[in-house]
What we know:
The structure holds two protein chains of two kinds. By secondary structure, chain A is an alpha/beta fold. Chain A contains six helices and four strands, in the order βαβββααααα. Chain B has a two-stranded parallel ribbon with strand order 1-2. Chain B is mainly alpha-helical. The relative contact order of chain B is 0.13. In chain B, helix 6 (150-179) runs parallel beside helix 8 (214-230) and helix 8 (214-230) crosses helix 10. The A-B interface holds A 13-14, 46-52, 67-68, 73-77, 114, 117, 136-143, 145-147, 149-150, 183 and B 17, 19, 23-24, 27-32, 35, 56-57, 59-63, 66-67, 126-131, 133-136, 179-183, 284.
Amino acid sequence: MATISVTPQTFHYVTFDADQIATLTSTLADQVGFPADATISVEIDERTPLGRARIDSLDPLALHIEGGAIEEPTEPRTLSGRLSADVIGRLLFRAKDRIDGGFADAPADADLTLQQQTAWDTYAMGRLERLGYDVRPPRRQYHFRNRHGFTDVVDRIFTHLWGAEALTWADIDAACQETAASKASA
Amino acid sequence: MKKFMTSQELARDARFKRIGIQDRIADRRLSERQRDEVEGKTAEAAGKKKRLQFSPEHPDAPDRARSMMHGIFVGEIQALEGAGRTCWDFSVGKGPDDVPFELKLDMARQCWDESRHCEISVKLSDWMGTEIGEFGESAFLFEAACNPDPILRLTGVNRALEGLAIDVFNTMKDFGDSSGDPVLEFCEDWMLADEVTHVKMGSDWLRRMTEKDPDRRARALEFQRVVDKLFSGGGLRGDDENSPIRLARRFRELAGFDKTEIDEIAELSKEALEEAKARMATSRA
């Protein structure tokens, strides 16, 4: 089981529970395939209701999450187990993809286009759903359409990415090129 | 049947979760815009490319759009309930607590429109991947519809809150257009047309029923100002280009607002932003 550290340990702006976040991260790390000796730090920015999340470092793995990303949308300032799994699971899959090598030629996260980010996220969320998590595919499909276009071609590519298990960066990039071409010809 | 219901008495199934305004006010965290304002940053100074919250280039735009449209959906339910209550709460007559029969007809027509908007919103939610009750419900629209004076109620709901709906629908229609989402764009366009009518009803009845009662008109307009300021979202709605929700000047003119009134709403929005910044800076000190 990976070693997880969560900061802060005590929250002041929200009522999050650091132990709950650590337990979930540990479970997800096992399921995604991180080795038992992995160390993962999760930093939560509780001062903002915004919802961005990023990987700060791959070795050791460090995640940075804005509090709004894992907040229960119907109960301000409380932790959502569903969204925590959604966000942490997605970041862990992306990190694992990079570590495993098939994404070695992918641009740095900060340099990914919105289209590339969304395509990679789709690939991650499909795998997370198959682990048994409630990831709300329609929400992800709407994101995908927003970034790639509202066309049948785009929907087909979304389905392909969602159901895939062993893609590489070249596959993600090709999917983005195909949606871009379909958008241009529409 | 009971008259003058409170917002606590509204019927909702288990999917809906209420978020009180106190919950929002007690939140000491800063939105992106508020954070930049408190820190005195422009987007350029912060090293960021300026991206409006409802533009296709904004990373959070799809989720923000989903949340916004869910808020609009519950607002449509409350608008239906509010207009329905206005038909029932007041008697037909010429007394200060009475209303003309024609006002009730207008409210009945608004109920019909709002019912249609609820149905549109449910289908739009499906399209956007949103579940009913996925986000919390604020009851502020119905709370404004609890005012015991029919003219203050119409001014607060139809001119202030339905006016805010004009701004939101116009912004979201533009977002649908720019992101290439034909369903969102058309839904917003259709609902926007009705909102202009609802706001105009509020403007018309305010003028007709207070023609010989300047004090009552002043009270109604003051109530509208309070509602407008309270629900400017701490700077969410405004007239400058950085405002996530832009004041829809042209549609407001069509709905019976004159330039001075629109300028005043822009000013109230600025004040609301300044007050939110001061409140948050104090609470975080």
